[in-house]
């Protein structure tokens, strides 16, 4: 199975790639980012770094022929490209929407086209979109926290699923909705997450858990949709235990 990881230089994507190189099911891992992606550190014993192929994409709204060739033959896709809520505060919202929504939908269309034309065999085309626990799909609601951002992320989820509905039987989509993500050794992040978890009851998850859960689901099929934080914790822990 060929795996595509978009936004491959990011925090979660780096862990996704690290784990994927130890999973025999994946024969090739294509890391798409705006800059070259190196092999993650701390690879597990038995990991095969030769499976990793870095693909530089200057513009997520345009997929040149050489990039499309790298996408061909893939069946599993994990999309992590986004601007986080915190970083979005200092940016023009049109730019935030462009990155979080337009990039996603353009990438989904390009990857499905490459899948369809690249002789990748029978479906499924499995596309995992990493969103967040606060996104709101019901566009008639007004979230209390960052409503414009949360509604936009929810609208993006709706449009991802609409694409799957238009290609019924050929495309499977699922949204991962993690809460605040922690990681070993990142003390400041852990403190902030712990405080928000306690004060605002925002759920949390370890980066290894959310990564393992998304990888498990694109391999074995989507258990449910969406995958809420508790689902990701449960699936991720099970997958990590099996991998021990």
- Work out the helix count: 8
Number of strands: 9
Helix content: 40-55%
Ends apart, CA distance between termini = 21 Å
Order of helices and strands: EHEEHEHHEHEEHEHEH
* Beta-strand share of residues: 15-25%
List the uncertain runs: none
| Outline | globular
Average pLDDT reading: 92
Walk across the major sheet and give the strand order.
3-2-1-4-5-6-9
What would you report as the Rg, rounded to the nearest angstrom? 17 Å
* Largest sheet composition: 7 strands, parallel
Structural class: alpha/beta
Compact description:
The protein is an alpha/beta fold and 244 residues long.
Structure description:
The chain is of the alpha/beta class and 244 residues long. Helices cover 44% and strands 17% of the residues. The chain contains eight helices and nine strands. Strands 3-2-1-4-5-6-9 form a seven-stranded parallel β-sheet, with helices on both faces. Strands 7-8 form a two-stranded parallel ribbon. Strand 7, helix 6 and strand 8 (204-206) form a beta-alpha-beta unit. Helix 7 crosses helix 8 (229-243). The protein is globular.
């Amino acid at each position: 199975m060929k795996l595509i990881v978009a936004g491959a230089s990011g925090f979660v994507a780096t862990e996704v790639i690290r784990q994927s190189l130890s999973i025999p099911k994946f024969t090739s891992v294509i890391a798409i980012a705006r800059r070259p992606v190196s092999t993650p550190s701390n690879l597990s014993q038995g990991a095969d770094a030769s499976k990793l192929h870095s693909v530089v994409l200057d513009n997520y709204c345009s997929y040149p022929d050489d990039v499309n060739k790298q996408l061909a033959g893939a069946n599993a896709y994990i999309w992590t490209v986004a601007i986080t809520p915190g970083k979005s505060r200092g940016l023009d919202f049109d730019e935030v929407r462009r990155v979080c929504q337009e990039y996603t939908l353009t990438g989904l269309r390009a990857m499905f086209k490459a899948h369809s034309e690249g002789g990748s065999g029978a479906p499924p085309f499995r596309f995992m979109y990493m969103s967040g626990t606060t996104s709101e799909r019901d566009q008639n609601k007004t979230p209390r926290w960052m409503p414009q951002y949360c509604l936009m992320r929810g609208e993006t989820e709706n449009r991802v699923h609409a694409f799957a509905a238009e290609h019924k039987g050929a495309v499977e989509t699922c949204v991962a909705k993690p809460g605040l993500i922690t990681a070993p050794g990142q003390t400041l992040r852990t403190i902030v997450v712990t405080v928000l978890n306690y004060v605002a009851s925002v759920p949390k998850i370890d980066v290894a858990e959310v990564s393992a859960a998304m990888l498990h689901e694109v391999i074995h099929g989507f258990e449910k949709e969406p995958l809420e934080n508790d689902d990701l914790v449960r699936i991720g822990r099970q997958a990590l235990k099996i991998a021990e």
